[in-house]
Design goal:
The protein has 3 helices and no strands. The chain is mainly alpha-helical. It has one domain.
């Protein structure tokens, strides 16, 4: 419910101030990139402890 309210608020702010869309998209890309880096770091760390071919396949992609 809170996420829906945030999305509606973002939509209203974008309608009022269109350059805000580029800022929101840039922030989302930064957060997604950071998340991917952190997840890959954790998988590499766990792959060293557990010799798992499944993790090894996806880490090397």
């Amino acid at each position: 419910m809170i996420l829906g309210a945030i999305l509606i608020l973002c939509g209203i702010l974008i309608a009022i101030y269109p350059p805000l869309l580029s800022l929101i998209v840039a922030v989302l890309f930064i957060f997604m990139g950071t998340f991917v880096l952190l997840v890959s770091f954790r998988y590499k760390k766990s792959a060293k402890r557990f010799d798992d071919p499944f993790l090894d396949f996806f880490i090397k992609m």
